[in-house]
Design brief:
531 residues; mainly alpha
């Protein structure tokens, strides 16, 4: 069984690597545009595939299904509310991003405010990716693979700690090779290939899981049994004691989703590489459609695992790997593990690629060596990328023991998500708010949220109200502070955004109608499963 699983795993992993190499072997990896923005050549299928796979890593597959194991369908908010954020990206943010011809979000803040604002944002992104995002991707990937492939039995290594470190380093090194030698287009192509496999594999898990629930009587029978035996697990409306209470959908949950999908460098770098605005909008809205399907393979398996294993002492973040290992045949287990490795690599190398972009263009070219050649800028990104990869591979195993991996990720992300989102929105919607306001909001916002999480007596505030309401309160406060500063000490002249002419800004005619349809479908989903 182990041999067949391992053989299918190696075959599918090698196949994706070979096809990616064949497609991208003649790409331009020497210029900054070719390496960081794929030569601005991405069409909507590659944009959608890359967006989807950058998002769908093991912190989603393992973490969100683990959250569903604990709290049921209410955690689908992280998938479904994302659709509204993607509509906002397509209709509001993306036209403005492409108009300025930027490669990183901090570059937009330099254009709108000043160079120091850009530098502060660059540093925030680099610290957050090194300490929060990249380590969580590697750690969750290692935990998921251990369960799916039964790595202790396969390798003979019984020490959980040793196996965790070994898995993290192997996956991390492979991901770094993808990101640092291939550039953005290599990442986008491998993302799209793995995305197809992940969607197929995700639905296969649901099929075999529901078959297991019904003891082979059929998928519909399995669904009926789930509804009858665990109706509380299939309620889309989260209670006050759960991770995502319903009313937080309108405060912190919405804001975190809006930042993640509209202003997070790791995600939106794919859209900066769009061939034109129309292709970018199509890719973003197609991603929104796939996110509507997300609860089927990112939440339902966790509910199935709860039904099958809740009395076996399985921890929430172990539930998905345990389900995969127990319900799939060995040859499919290897295939799905290969797809999961692709998902890990996708998020890891995408975040690493974004990190090198921020460092090379924002720190190295912008501060350390303004006269650097194209080749020097690309080389600096590769060197810094390897340093960042090693640091995150050291930090990742230290995350062992978190109660809810996905909950921890969202909580930590809010520290920098909320201040950057506030600055971007105020910057785009106002003309006289000065650079000083942006700097105060960026530094002050991060400090306020971190203090609310970790520094007594400030920690009392998130205890009085839900932490997602707390971060929404900080967001509102930051917006007010920036507007007040803009009123008291405004810029001397109005800021007017200039069109660089780098991208054709003709919008897709179907963008608004499709966006409206997606929002309506979100409401329908919530109403359909409201308990």
């Amino acid at each position: 069984m182990h041999l067949l699983t391992l053989a299918s795993f190696l075959f599918f992993t090698g196949l994706v690597a070979f096809v990616t190499w064949r497609i991208t072997r003649r790409d331009d990896h020497s210029s900054t545009s070719g390496y960081f923005l794929a030569g601005r050549s991405l069409t909507f299928p590659l944009i959608a595939g890359s967006l989807l796979m950058t998002n769908l890593s093991t912190e989603q597959m393992v973490g969100l299904n683990g959250a569903a194991f604990a709290d049921g369908l209410s955690v689908m908010a992280w998938e479904v509310v994302a659709v509204i954020a993607l509509v906002a990206l397509a209709l509001f943010f993306l036209p403005r991003f492409l108009k300025s011809g930027i490669a990183t979000l901090p570059q937009l803040l330099e254009i709108r405010f000043d160079k120091t604002t850009q530098l502060i944002t660059n540093v925030i992104f680099l610290i957050a990716y090194a300490v929060i995002l990249l380590p969580i991707i590697l750690y969750s990937g290692a935990i998921g693979l251990q369960g799916m492939l039964d790595l202790p039995g396969l390798t003979g290594i019984q020490s959980t700690t040793t196996l965790l470190w070994l898995t993290v380093w192997i996956v991390g090194i492979i991901g770094a090779v993808y990101a640092l030698f291939g550039g953005l287009r290599t990442v986008a192509v491998s993302d799209t290939l793995n995305g197809a496999g992940l969607l197929v594999g995700g639905f296969v898990i649901v099929y075999f899981g529901l078959q297991a629930v019904s003891d082979g009587a059929g998928v519909m029978e399995g669904w009926s049994i789930l509804k009858q035996t665990n109706p509380e697990q299939l309620n889309s409306i989260g209670g006050s004691e759960q991770q995502v209470p319903f009313f937080t959908l309108f405060t912190g949950v919405f804001l975190i989703n809006l930042f993640y999908w509209s202003t997070n460098q790791q995600i939106i770098q794919r859209t900066f590489a769009a061939k034109n605005l129309a292709e970018g909008q199509k890719g973003v809205l197609l991603t929104g459609f796939f996110k509507l399907l997300g609860p089927l393979y990112l939440v339902l398996p966790g509910i199935i695992a709860y039904h099958l294993y809740f009395d076996e002492g399985v921890r929430a973040d172990e539930a998905y790997g345990y389900l995969v290992f127990n319900v799939l045949p060995p040859y499919l287990t290897g295939f799905f593990a290969a797809v999961m490795v692709g998902a890990i690599l996708s998020s890891f190398n995408s975040a690493l690629n974004s990190t090198t972009t921020i460092f090379s263009l924002g720190i190295y070219k912008g501060v350390l060596n303004p006269e650097a050649t194209e080749a020097q800028v690309v080389k600096s990104g590769k060197v810094f990328g390897w340093i960042m990869a090693v640091v995150t591979m050291i930090i990742a195993p230290l995350l062992a023991g978190q109660e809810s991996l996905f909950g921890y990720l969202q909580k930590m992300n809010a520290i920098y998500f909320i201040p950057i989102l506030a600055v971007v929105i105020v910057g785009l919607l106002t003309k006289r708010v000065p650079p000083m306001a942006a700097k105060i909001a960026l530094v002050g916002g991060c400090l306020m949220i971190a203090a609310g999480y970790f520094v007594p007596p400030f920690t009392l505030l998130p205890e009085v109200m839900h932490e997602f309401h707390f971060v929404a309160l900080v967001f509102a406060l930051l917006v007010i502070i920036m507007l007040v500063i803009g009123k008291l000490r405004p810029r001397e002249t109005d800021w007017v955004q200039q069109d660089t002419g780098d991208v054709d800004l003709t919008p897709w005619k179907g963008a608004v109608p499709v966006g409206i349809v997606l929002v309506v479908l979100v409401i329908v989903m919530y109403v359909s499963f409201a308990g």
